[in-house]
Write a structure and sequence with these properties.
The structure holds 2 protein chains of 2 kinds. By secondary structure, chain A is α/β, with parallel strands linked by helices. Chain A is built from 10 helices and 21 strands. Helix content of chain A is 30%, strand content 24%. Chain B is α+β, with helices and mostly antiparallel strands. Chain B has a single domain, classed as Translation Initiation Factor IF3 (2-Layer Sandwich), CATH 3.30.110. A 4-stranded mixed β-sheet of chain B has the order 1-2-4-3, with helices on one face. The longest helix of chain B has 14 residues. The chains are: A alpha/beta, B alpha+beta. The complex binds flavin-adenine dinucleotide.
């Protein structure tokens, strides 16, 4: 009997896992001992980090997309047919289009999504760049902006921990370049008592913000937005006026996770080392959808996927586990439109970013292009 | 029924214990308790201060072997 590895979600994590499995299970796929099936939501694969450049007109929209079938190894059975109900007791997944797929091993890689609707008034008055529609609207708002108060508002939980700092610094440079900085003010709000979750990044950002004149409000967890008065209020009791509100809305995992009873808010309880779904031996979780308390980032998805590939291959071919995930996360950080830095850490090594340089900015731009190689499993 | 949930944020450098707690409180029901395990002294001080400020309840902080357990109750 052929063993089925079913991957739900064709974003970064799911795609790396699928391609990596194909590379390592070549002979099993040839003989039909194993088959790999993926359920996705669209024919296209979007490069999400590229969304950061859309509001500033620094990327063409077409550059964000590739055909998913071309990114995937052709040995993967790919269906654009979202999972509707995941039954981990019966080892099967029911889809929107009426399929029922049985599996031997299941990989949950359904990612995370923004929920501006969870904050009263946010959907009406806020702008964001975490999806394409939002990024386009923000691009229009920025090009019509003639000066005034800008708020960059960060909410928990959210993916890509560095994007809020990046957009703030890029906004500042944009305003300067367009002669609007004298007429403008940027206030950055953050949920905890410093400017970034990563302590060394926060230590670097504070003097940088002070130097260039960006204001900040820490311990700011958004309670509501008043679209009429154009004000934003925090649970901590602070109210700020704005002319342009750029928000990083709170996130949730995929609806199907919650609907299948696999995790509140769409976050799947996951073993931080083995990446098993808690309570299952044949269900693994990868990428943003885990509840592991580490950054929800492409690099996390990538390092987790590498571990998962090795473990699934060992399980299928030798019935044993290969290795644990060590919690590794790596992030490039844009510190302006022309400079960048990077930081990495794992469960035991604290982060320590180096000084920003133009060179690292070019690395990040190069990495933007390399994304497709990494999704295809070639990096 | 009030629930109790534990977040093991020991060695979690990003987003860290307080951010995890903030996210978990959004999904909790009034009366639910959340225990955060943290090896970071800073957040062990920050959590109770923040919890008081926004009107949730501090149940207690206990020092364990090289880490702390901070228990919070959702009050509103
Ligand atoms: C603006 C922005 C900038 C970013 N910048 C960076 C960066 O610089 N560096 C970095 O490391 N990370 C960055 N990230 C984060 C990174 O893109 C994500 O962390 C990464 O994509 C997570 O991979 P994933 O596979 O878990 O989720 P995703 O890539 O989001 O994929 C999840 C997939 O599951 C699908 N899905 C959902 N529900 C179902 C269902 N029911 N059935 C089937 N499929 C389903 C979704 O459609 C989606 O395709 C950024 C993100 C954004 C938005």
């Amino acid at each position: 009997m052929s063993k089925t590895i079913l991957i739900v979600g064709g974003g970064l994590a799911g795609t790396i896992v699928a391609n990596g499995l194909c590379r390592q299970l070549g002979s099993e796929l040839r003989t039909g001992a194993v088959n790999i099936t993926m359920l996705g939501t669209t024919e296209t694969h979007m490069y999400q980090p590229g969304l950061l450049y859309v509001p500033f007109g620094k990327i063409r929209e077409a550059e964000l997309f590739r055909e998913q079938r071309k990114v995937l190894d052709r040995r993967v059975n790919f269906f654009v047919d979202p999972a509707k109900h995941i039954d981990v007791e019966k080892n099967q997944v029911a889809t929107e289009h009426g399929r029922t797929i049985k599996y031997d091993y299941l990989v949950l890689a359904t990612g995370s999504r923004i929920m501006p609707q969870n904050i009263p008034g946010m959907k009406e008055a806020g702008h964001w760049f975490y999806d394409l529609d939002g990024a386009r609207k923000l691009r229009d708002a920025i090009s019509n902006f003639q000066g005034g108060k800008i708020i960059v508002n960060v909410n928990a939980p959210h993916k890509c921990p560095v994007a809020p700092l990046e957009v703030t610094l890029m906004m500042h440079e944009y305003l300067k370049a367009h002669g609007l900085w004298e007429k403008s003010e940027i206030t950055y709000t953050y949920p905890i008592g410093r400017l970034h979750a990563l302590e060394p990044v926060a230590h670097w950002a504070k003097p940088e913000f002070d130097r260039i004149g960006i204001k900040y409000e820490t311990f700011f967890n958004t309670e509501s937005v008043d679209p009429e008065k154009k004000t934003i209020k925090s649970m901590e009791g602070v109210e700020l006026p704005f002319d342009l509100l750029i928000t990083i809305p709170p996130h949730a995992g995929a609806e199907v996770i919650d609907a299948s009873g696999l995790g509140k808010g769409g976050w799947v309880p996951t073993n931080p080392k083995t990446l098993h779904r808690d309570g299952s031996t044949n269900v693994f979780v990868c990428g943003d959808t885990t509840n592991i308390p580490i950054s929800k980032a492409g690099s996390t998805a990538h390092f987790e996927a590498d571990v998962l590939i090795d473990n699934l291959v060992s399980l299928v071919t030798e019935g044993r586990f290969a290795r644990d995930y060590d919690g590794k996360v790596f992030c490039f950080i844009e510190t302006g439109l022309n400079s960048g830095t990077y930081v990495w850490f794992n469960y035991t090594t604290p982060p320590n970013p180096g000084p920003p340089s133009q060179m690292i900015h070019w690395f990040k731009l190069a990495y933007n292009r390399l994304y497709w190689l990494s999704a295809r499993g070639l990096l | 029924m009030a629930e109790r949930q534990t977040i093991d944020a020991r060695g979690a450098f990003c987003p860290g214990p307080l951010m995890e707690l903030i996210a978990a409180l959004k999904l909790a029901q009034i009366g639910d308790e959340i225990e955060v395990l943290s090896s970071d002294k800073g957040s062990v001080n920050d959590i109770p201060a923040w919890v008081t400020k926004v009107g949730h309840a501090n149940v207690g902080t206990t020092e364990k072997d090289g880490y702390w357990s901070v228990v919070v109750k959702k009050a509103k």
